[in-house]
Amino acid sequence: MKAFEAKSKKIKKLFMVVLLILYLGTMASLEVLSQDISENETVQLSQSQVTKIEAFVQRQMTKGNIPGMSVVIVNGDHTVYKKGFGFANMGKKEPVEPTTLFELGSTSKAFTGLGILQLEKNGKLKLSDPVKNYIPWLKMKYRGKEVQTTIAHFLYQTSGIPFETIGDIPALEDDKALDKTVRMLVGRELRHAPGTEFLYATINYDVLGLIIQNVSGKSFEEYMRENILMPLQLNHTFLFRSEAESKGMATGYKLCFKKPAAYDAPVYRGNTPAGYFITNAQDLGQWLKIQMGTIELTGFDNELIKKSHMTDPDRPESDYAAGWIVLKNIGQIAHSGTNPNFSSFVAFAPEEKVGVAVLANSNSNFTTGTGQGIAAILRGMEPKPSFYDMNARFDDISFKIVLILAPFILLALVLFIRSIIIIVGKKRQFSARGGKRVVGFIVATILMVGWCYVLSMIPSLLNYNVPLSFAVVWMPMSFTYAVISICLTGFLFYLFFLSKLFFPKTTIG
């Protein structure tokens, strides 16, 4: 009996141990499960947020006549939202996917800024170094006198180079494109003394790109790919359009009479450091995590990322860092970007660890507005819709100009053709005699030349001190048609006047 009781106690103890193990195992599983659920809850968007975001994006695209957009949202080290909207190619009805590639515009500058900081970290240069140490021939003036610029002046956009130098960037894609682009600055008169004021000019970062190229002994593209893109595992980011097009790049569009039209923009390889990196939502999600420090990569100094967010140390009031704008009032670091037929917006909150990026295959202010609106939704606020877009404004004005001039072009054409028919029918004879005809020809020709000159000055008249050729590339396609309409109207009336002047009615004697 005692033996049985002893055995029974052993069984009870064993049973209790088993129960305890099962209990602890169950609790541990529940704790892990609880952690998983809690983690998922912190990184997932609610259905109401998703609904609001998607409705807002669609409204923005409709208002801005944007063919396609790609959106990515990051929370901590998780990509919580990634989706394409609209079309990458309208003609082929190809939808935008998270893998669809877009040109970035000026959000490219953060990559180039990081490249400069990396060279400094490796002892290859100092931000305080005079630029002439690396580009000896780059000499510019302020108030007629040659001045010294440093690398920091270009990094923080305080070099004094005017904004309108963007119009001087040549359309080139050869290996000397970067060098030729920066040479456009030689002898340039600066707007202010270097280091004294902030003045955004995209070509500042092309100068940095050439410094990277000269210091490294490699092409800018090769250095950035090997030392920035690859270590950061940005495997879907490219620096050549020809390469990106074979990997699924969106078609770029411009407005044309209130509708998007495909536009094959010139290649500006010399402006790649400032505006022509090509990437997708997938890589931008990785880029946002890197910026917020929620992931660490071996083989790359993460301290460089933090330094790239630091504004100009010589100007405490500055909000410009190494290719980033630091918005201290709202706790956000951001940058927008545009080029002739693409646009982007990248922003993140360093404290909240939430980031947003928006890509579009059209140059539109609505892209930045979309990114800002999404950030507002994530903060529990109502998004503010975009109401103004410069390209939409010029498209509307151009549309009205073409409509107004169409009947005048038709009238001038009819009058000129009628005059030609009469001349061919020998009802009029050529005559160049008489002082009135000479004066009439001179006056008409001067007016025609003046007409053409005024046309070439249209951007300046609109307070954009850039060449007409630049405006034709960057502005809506309807702007080009408006310029052609204005030119054609004047030229046809000029020809009609000359036909009447030199082919008078035959006098019946």
Superfamily (CATH H level) name of the largest domain: DD-peptidase/beta-lactamase superfamily
SSE arrangement, N to C: HHEEEEHEEHHHHHEEHEHHEEEEHHHHHH
Q: In angstroms, what separates the terminal alpha carbons? A: 157 Å
Give the CATH topology of the largest domain.
Beta-lactamase
Task: Give an overview in words.
This protein is of the alpha+beta class. The protein has three domains: 1-43; 49-388, DD-peptidase/beta-lactamase superfamily (Beta-lactamase, 3-Layer(aba) Sandwich), CATH 3.40.710.10; 392-502, no CATH class. Helices cover 48% and strands 13% of the residues. The protein has 17 helices and 13 strands. The chain has helices spanning 2-43, 47-64, 109-121, 151-155, 177-183, 204-216, 220-229, 241-245, 272-275, 281-292, 303-308, 365-378, 390-424, 435-456, 458-461, 468-474, 477-502; strands spanning 68-75, 78-89, 94-95, 102-103, 140-142, 145-147, 253-256, 259-262, 278-279, 325-327, 332-339, 342-349, 354-360. Strands 3-2-1-13-12-11-10 form a seven-stranded antiparallel sheet, sandwiched between helices. Strands 4-9 form a two-stranded antiparallel ribbon. α13 (390-424) packs parallel to α17 (477-502) and α14 (435-456) runs antiparallel to α17 (477-502). The longest helix is centred in the first third of the chain and has 42 residues, at 2-43. The chain starts with a helix and ends in a 7-residue tail after the last helix.
Blueprint (SSEs and pairs):
Elements: H1 2-43, H2 47-64, E1 68-75, E2 78-89, E3 94-95, E4 102-103, H3 109-121, E5 140-142, E6 145-147, H4 151-155, H5 177-183, H6 204-216, H7 220-229, H8 241-245, E7 253-256, E8 259-262, H9 272-275, E9 278-279, H10 281-292, H11 303-308, E10 325-327, E11 332-339, E12 342-349, E13 354-360, H12 365-378, H13 390-424, H14 435-456, H15 458-461, H16 468-474, H17 477-502
Helix pairs in contact: 2-12, 3-6, 3-7, 5-6, 13-17, 14-17
